[in-house]
Design brief:
CATH class of the largest domain: Alpha Beta
Order of helices and strands: EHEHHEHEHEHEHEHHHHEEEEEEEEEHH
CATH architecture of the largest domain: 2-Layer Sandwich
Number of helices: 13
CATH superfamily of the largest domain: Dihydrodipicolinate Reductase, domain 2
Strand content: 15-25%
Distance between the termini: 20 Å
Bound molecules: 6-O-phosphono-beta-D-glucopyranose
CATH topology of the largest domain: Dihydrodipicolinate Reductase, domain 2
Oligomer: single chain
């Protein structure tokens, strides 16, 4: 994590996107690179080499990406798009975007890459379906593309899902480690790039007032919510094989949980932070089948209306089996069995096509002894609740009781709110900007370690 006020320009490298024709490249990677360019953080020798099976050239690639970026800006990209496309900035970036068409199964694709890269530092971003992760790293390894040039680096960024269960995740990890060292692997989770997710650590560990309360004696329960209004859209085929649990829980939701539950690390060093997060996750009590039945709910969205317009149900989406049992909603209750959290339930929930887009962590504190307010109706005795708002607005709010003005002592619930955008005047970010920058800079703090996955 870079704690400096103004970060330096990232080290020069080639950014190789395997799967450059896909959704991720257009919707997230290129907008994030554009934002980095706008912030003056990309070296002038930085270059993107996009690889995919589709036939195309640099001109076509740049046109596709610009069109997508403009559409993203126009629809406001869920609050994460830049406000407009700055032509000079785009032109500066576009001339450094290149495209090669090639088949991932063909060694010639990787030989061409050897020639294109020479001795430059490079990041290989696997923006493909998960079934290609292992074979692609094999191809990169066999072509010696992962051997680090003198004074430079070669890194691999891997998307999710990282395996579909413990055995397949371990197998994938072992397969990758045949070709690279652990410090060359960056398992990405874009939630870790979000400012307010990083702020959980800053808030907890740089303020004296919260941490003493942050434990079982004072906290009643914790609710972590990642609610989306979007459906699966064009990603039906991906989602059918993934579902809400694998799409969101072991990565995004668990990261939020780990940041909330972890002990203070000794430093902001990558390993110190990741070790504490791993300990928090390891303390989660596994659920037996019987407990899972009692503590987990799965659901799937039906046809309905959103903002007055009809939207299809999950089973009607493109690429989805009309009798699909894949879950689009999951809610669960967890216990973290350690000294800090024993007896404090953690409720996690996430789903698509929900009533509102809202990502937040709500910490509910235990009630005060209300003896003084015996005559106040219970629903006016608001619990103290601290909410870390992550999306769509970023901030922190604190709910507490205050006296309603008047001759009698009556209580009302009030909320104090800190809003990131108001205070720091920050632009929207996808979460990928920080992570791509950190990967170029060789800082793995905000990436996942294998044991955590
Ligand atoms: C992705 C999931 O990792 O995260 C998507 O694959 C989900 O299904 C997305 O919509 C949510 O990200 P964000 O940044 O919009 O909360």
């Amino acid at each position: 994590m870079n704690l400096a006020a103004k970060p330096p320009v990232a080290p020069a490298c080639a950014f190789v996107i395997l799967g450059a024709g896909g959704d991720l490249t257009k919707r997230l990677l290129v907008p994030a690179l554009y934002n980095l360019e706008l912030a003056g953080l990309l070296d002038e020798r930085f270059e993107v080499l996009g690889i995919d099976r589709l036939t195309g050239d640099d001109h076509w690639f740049r046109g596709e990406l610009l069109e997508m970026l403009r559409a993203f800006v126009a629809e406001r990209g869920g609050g994460t798009a830049p406000a407009s496309v700055d032509d000079a900035c785009w032109d500066g970036l576009a001339q450094r975007l290149h495209y090669h068409s090639g088949d991932f199964a063909d060694p010639a694709t990787f030989q061409a890459l050897v020639a294109a890269l020479g001795t430059r530092s490079a990041i290989f971003y696997l923006a493909t379906a998960a079934r290609f992760f292992g074979p692609l790293v094999d191809q990169l390894g066999e072509a010696k593309l992962l051997a680090e040039p003198e004074g430079g680096f070669r890194r691999v960024v891997i998307e999710k899902p990282f395996g579909t269960d413990l055995a397949s995740a371990e197998q994938l990890n072992a397969r990758i480690l045949r070709h690279v060292g652990e410090r060359q692997i960056y398992r990405i989770d874009h939630y870790l790039g979000k400012e307010t997710v990083q702020n959980i650590m800053a808030l907890r560990f740089s303020n004296g007032i919260f941490e003493p309360l942050w434990q079982r004696d004072h906290i009643d329960h914790v609710q972590i919510t990642v609610a989306e209004t979007v459906g699966v859209g064009t990603r039906g085929a991906f989602y059918e094989a993934t579902g809400a649990v694998r799409d969101m829980v072991p990565n995004h939701v668990m990261q939020l949980l780990a940041m909330t539950a972890m002990e203070a690390p000794n430093s902001f060093d990558a390993d110190a932070v990741r070790a504490e997060k791993a300990k928090a996750v390891q303390a989660i009590q596994p659920l037996s089948s019987e407990q899972a039945r009692l503590n987990v709910v799965r659901g799937q969205y039906r046809p309905g209306a959103l903002d007055g317009a009809a939207v299809p149900g999950y089973r009607q989406e493109h690429g989805v089996d009309p009798a699909s049992e894949t879950e689009t909603y999951i809610a669960m209750k967890f216990a973290i069995d350690n000294w800090r959290w024993a007896g404090v339930p953690f409720y996690l929930r996430t789903g698509k096509r929900l009533a509102a887009r809202r990502t937040e962590i709500a910490i509910q504190f235990k009630p005060a002894p209300f003896a003084l307010f015996r005559d106040t109706p219970v629903d006016l005795l608001a619990p103290n609740r601290m909410v870390l708002h992550i999306q769509p607005s970023e901030g922190v709010s604190l709910q507490f009781s205050a006296k309603v003005p008047g001759p009698k002592v009556r209580l009302g619930a009030v909320t104090m709110k800190f809003d990131y955008a108001d205070h720091f005047h920050v632009g929207p970010s996808t979460g990928y900007e920080t992570l791509l920058y950190d990967c170029m800079a060789g800082d793995a703090t905000l990436f996942q370690r294998a044991d955590n996955i």
